[in-house]
Design a protein that fits this description.
By secondary structure, this protein is mainly β. 8% of the residues lie in helices and 47% in strands.
Length: 155
């Protein structure tokens, strides 16, 4: 898991050098006026979803992992906390769905880290790293979630 600010985004280009410049250009052009929806950056290998929603109280059964894709979550507006932790030893609450590339686990507080996102902050979650986005006081947020096929990683 990586937690940083967009101004430092180029520091992580070694993760996927062949696509990072395109990804940085796309994210640099996103703002609160960017229309919600899906954006193809490199077909199914790299794509982004611009989302607006209201945050919610933590949902302990919704600690998620992905196996195929790396998640980059960049907050454009509002405030949100993403909880993160290892899934080792946690109870599965929804088995892995390969079509949606997601499985859910029951979160426990012990070992959980809260990442308070403000506009410009991003978090990168590698496959199998547990994370629970969308937490807050009910206020609206706008963010970009980028999916990068793990096959593109060079780590």
């Amino acid at each position: 898991m990586i937690f940083d600010d967009l101004k430092n985004f180029a520091n992580y280009a070694k993760l996927a050098p062949a696509t990072w410049a395109k990804l940085a250009a796309f994210l640099g052009g996103c703002d609160t006026e960017t229309a919600t929806g899906r954006y193809e950056i490199d077909g199914e290998r790299v794509y982004a979803m611009v989302q607006s929603y209201n945050t919610h109280e933590p949902r302990p059964d919704k600690l998620e992992i992905h196996r195929r894709y790396v998640d980059i979550q960049l907050l454009l507006a509002g405030r949100e906390t993403i909880f993160s932790r290892s899934i080792d030893g946690l109870e599965v609450t929804a088995d892995y769905d390969a079509t949606r590339d997601i499985a859910f686990y029951r979160n426990v507080d012990d070992g959980t880290v809260g990442l308070p996102l403000a506009p410009g902050n991003f978090a990168i979650f590698l496959p199998e790293e547990g994370h629970m986005p969308g937490n807050g006081d009910g206020s609206e947020v706008t963010k970009v979630v980028v999916k990068i096929d793990r096959a593109l990683l060079e780590v």
